[in-house]
Write a structure and sequence with these properties.
By secondary structure, this protein is of the alpha+beta class. It is built from two helices and five strands. The chain has a five-stranded mixed β-sheet, with helices on one face.
């Protein structure tokens, strides 16, 4: 298996102006547009969005780049990314309820 086809899982926290700007919809849209990215996104507190995504490394890396840009009106001040062991538990990408 080539490195770009390797299945990976990332856990991402994005901090900044991410509420009331369509950030979760932006994340969901790009996961589905790229295809092959499964997982979820949710709000955590007022200025944090949490994301878990799985898929081929090349797809997930492209997805993370788009997430860090955010939609118009958003401002990403910082992001933290941790790689985790893929589980294959997701059938699609979804928006989850806020914490």
């Amino acid at each position: 298996m080539s490195e770009s086809n390797e299945i990976i899982r990332v856990h991402v926290w994005v901090v900044g102006r991410v509420q009331n700007v369509g950030f979760r919809a932006h994340v969901e849209y790009h996961a589905r547009e790229i295809g092959g990215v499964t997982g979820w996104v949710r709000n955590v507190g007022y200025d944090v969005v949490e994301i878990v995504a799985e898929g081929e490394r090349s797809f997930v890396e492209r997805f993370i780049g788009l997430v860090k840009q955010g939609p118009r009106g958003a401002r990403v001040d910082e992001s933290r990314l941790e790689e985790e062991t893929p589980t294959g538990e997701f059938a699609a990408f979804e928006v989850r309820r806020s914490l």
